[in-house]
Amino acid sequence: MVSGLLAGLLTLTLALLADASSAFAVATVSAKTTLTMSASTTSTADHVLYDMPVSNNGARCRIILYKKGISSQQVEIVSPMALGGLKSEEYMKKFPQGLMPCLSIQKKDNAYGIDSLAESDVIARYLLSEYATLGPSFLPNHPKSNQICRWHDVYLTTIQGCLYKPASRLPLGDYADRKGALAAYRKHLKVIEGFLGDGERTYLCGEEISLADATLFPSLVFANFMLPKFDDASNPQPPLPPKLARWFENVRAKDEVFAKVYEEIMDPLVNSWEAKNHRWDGIWLAGLRDAAPATIFDKIIAGEIPAAKVLEDEHLLAFKDISPLAPAHVLVIPKDRQGLTNLRQATAEHTDILGKLLMWPLERLPRTHRWGSATARGS
User: Fold this and answer.
1) Which of 64, 142, 299, 346 is the most buried (most CB within 10 A)?
2) What is the pLDDT, as a whole number, of residue 33?
3) pLDDT above 50: residue 82
């Protein structure tokens, strides 16, 4: 009985939809600056920062190194490829998640009881403490700075993959589809904008650089470059909220370290990710768009064709079939088709909506409307 019901639901869904990193040791940054990354596995520096230029989270740590003037003997920047890559056994011993950045503590007087640190905020705060007497303090205890850093790390970077990851890497945080994650990403940029005061200042917390500046700037390099790729051509949006946009351009123009880090990140984004690898060509809402004409179901959702609605929520609409094949014949369709005009168009981007189409009738529709006759028909 159960298998027959599921078969009936699958038949219903089918009917509904039928109509409806290259390794590198040295990365050229600009004509004047280069980020030299060692490929050696035998560094004699006190610390080794495993990172790559394109990493926005690693760039937080690099800004600290550059602004404080920390030498390569104190912290050497090494590509993870020196250990065989992010997923190599040797690198995973240092950072079990296989991500970057990662800081290896190699100094002889290491008394911390740990020889490697993972996650950029942990590394950044360690560097600020370890090299507190060098350069600016980065205001490690400033409430606004800490609030921006925390919001960035919890709500922004956890879903930033919506800007560049393929469908196979979904879901993104709490968001099952790219469209929802993109909307949330923009929302959290506006939340961070709300933490800023009025007036033009070089840095987020005044005239002194803070950890918030080092944390947020590299991520906004991503956002400023990538968000426009997902714009509706008929209604483009500014990639950054106005206050953040002004700060982003201002600090880049006035602080040579931020200008340097901007170039470090942009070089692989433009020359490798985009020009060489065509990363966005196969990503839904960027290189891939829904250009199919409207179907009868789109017209029903738009109210152009009347329908006897049974149930509706923000994602789905259920209505009675005008030519029923059973005493209770209800069609369930997605309100946002996301390019899914037929099952041949389905990709991992559609996993969530396909699941909703199968489960929603069981969970929400009255029992008398659950394709009762379809069970016999599918058996």
Assistant:
1) 64
2) 45
3) yes
Show Cβ contacts of residue 88 under 8 Å, excluding neighbours closer than 6 positions. 80
Structure-token pair, residue 156? 């922004």
* Concatenated DSSP letters of 6-64: HHHHHHHHHHHHHH-----SEEE--SS-EEE-B--S---SSEEEE--TT-HHHHHHHHH
**CA count, 13 A, side-chain hemisphere, 167:** 17
Both tokens of 371, joined, read: 């394709």
Tokens 């005044």 -> residue: 206
- Rounded to whole angstroms, the Cα distance separating 103 from 124 reads 10
pLDDT, tens only, 361-377: 777 766 655 543 222 11
Higher pLDDT, 357 or 138: 138
**Using an 8 Å Cβ cutoff, are 49 and 127 in contact?**
no
Give the phi and the psi of residue 284 in degrees, each rounded to 5. Answer: -60, 135
Specify which residues 35 forms β-bridges with: 27
Return the ∠ at Cα 82 (arms to 78 and 83), rounded to 5°: 115
What is the spatial distance between Cα 29 and Cα 43, in angstroms, rounded to a whole number? 23
pLDDT digits (tens, 9 = 90+) for 106-144: 998 888 999 999 999 999 999 999 999 999 999 999 999
What are the helix (H) ranges across the chain? 2-19, 56-68, 89-94, 120-130, 143-151, 178-194, 211-226, 242-254, 256-268, 296-301, 351-364, 372-378
Measuring CA to CA, which residue among 137, 177, 101, 223 is closest to residue 353?
177
Paired tokens of 308: 């006897």
